[in-house]
Design goal:
The protein has a domain of 63 residues. Helix content is 44%, strand content 0%. The protein is built from five helices and no strands. Helix 1 packs parallel to helix 4.
């Protein structure tokens, strides 16, 4: 689904991108980032269409979604100070580095 089509579905449901993101336990920025390439993943498009249709038929989509325990997502990567993306490389000595002219 195109991002523009997704926004139309949200409008039909009476939701903003932020409200939709909160409803499904996502960061609003993660959803807005799909606007760059203009396409939305199928699973998000499907949720948006179903939420809009339930709302149009007078059904409470919030009650239906509340039946699923949405666990917070774990942060990506395992980066620690001095390591890149949790890569198991040797630690970098960032303290001893001096700026070069």
């Amino acid at each position: 689904m195109s991002y523009a089509g997704f926004l139309l579905e949200l409008e039909r449901a009476g939701l903003s991108v932020r409200a939709f993101a909160e409803l499904i336990g996502m960061n609003p920025n993660s959803i807005s980032n799909y606007a760059r390439n203009g396409e939305l993943p199928t699973h998000l498009a499907l949720i948006a269409v179903l939420v809009a249709e339930l709302g149009l038929h007078g059904l409470d989509y919030r009650e239906a979604i509340a039946k699923v325990a949405i666990a917070p997502k774990k942060p990506r990567g395992g980066a620690r100070r001095g390591r890149f993306g949790g890569d198991r490389q040797t630690s970098l000595d960032l303290q001893g580095e001096q700026a070069h002219d």
